[in-house]
Amino acid sequence: MKATSISRLCIILSAASLAVASAQEPANPDSKPLTDESIKASPDASKVKDASRDLANPESRITEPLERELKSGEEEVVTDGPSAFESETAVREATTAAEAAVRQSKLNIANADEARTILEGIIGGDGEISRAEQARGKSLSEEASSVAAIVPDEMREEAKIYVQDYLRGQVTADRKVPTFFGTSLDQESSDRAALSFENGKRFFQSGKRSVHFYSKTSVPAVLLANATLGNVELNTAVQAAKIMPVPEERIAALPGGYRSVDAWVISYPVNTEGMFSTDKISFRPSSTQFADTLSKDMIAVLAEAMKNPSFEGQRFVIESHTPVDGEFEQNQILSQERAEAIARALIREGVPMEQLIPVGYGEAEAQHAQTAAPAQRLTDRRTIIFRLGENKLAQPEQTLSE
């Protein structure tokens, strides 16, 4: 595809994202023009460097986030079938249709059956969105299969065990990072794969994570459905402040609409020792399409780890985070859609739908300002997976007395 076509695609998709957001009522009072530059990964970023794919070294894959970002803008190889624009449009239309179908019903979900119907329509492996994604990613899937054949089974198995141990809370600071992940996890910090929740804007209080929305209508349908099923808690911002007080300086960082009396909060208890954080899952700009084969490889490893019998019946929260770029609301919407895309990909790999809860944080927990160096800001582009903790609603008097 020529560069002009790529520019046209990005402009149209940004407009489509704004159209989805504007359809939600009430409108966010903090809205401002969107400048989404949160992800700039190239579809060819993880291709092996060897000329012969048969002799390619799996360690030659590009895994550094900044290097993958710098490769953005390269021309895409044109293949038979629908164009990239047509495939992306099909996914966007399926997403918009699914959201529109539940825009009203999601506010008054009557029972568990209705909640599961909503989940199946949005993150189900056989839903319209999932089918459109599969058609869109066909060429990337074929390429991923070729690369997967090069990655040794031992390397993949080592990575799977590493993720499993992280989710079980069994990885020590001196544990060597598997070659599969490249080198970006092995930094000066004792354990960069598991981010600290003691620094920066981490909404983590009384054993729970929380994410704010400026109205109940703006709360994603999958989260309202999970609230009906008892997997997450839904409260007004006023109620949430009494049940789970969050330090004022953290709340103050949110736009005004997210702190008003009309705001709502989704919260959920997590196992703080059972988590895994990675910057290896990248997306194309303003899209839910995985950027490269390394991202697809990461999904496959995560799925194999989650399907371990020891996790049977265990629920996982899939959080998507972005750097500070453009409008807060649009980044939250985009990150929610990406978290849902990851959930659908995992489901297609065999992880049961009922085990996955996708949550988009946008830039709410970004550690670096927009003026920070690109390499620093890219560390805010993360996928974090938690094991869901025991969901017991805290009593206000107990929380306030702590």
Automatic annotation (TrEMBL):
Q: Where is this region: Disordered?
A: 22-89
User: Per the record, a Pfam family?
Assistant: OmpA
Chain intervals with Basic and acidic residues compositional bias:
61-74
- Residues covered by the OmpA-like domain: 270-391
Q: Does the keyword Membrane apply?
A: yes
- What Gene3D superfamilies does this protein map onto? OmpA-like domain
Q: Where is the signal peptide?
A: 1-23
What are the record keywords, sorted? Membrane, Signal
UniProt protein name:
OmpA family protein
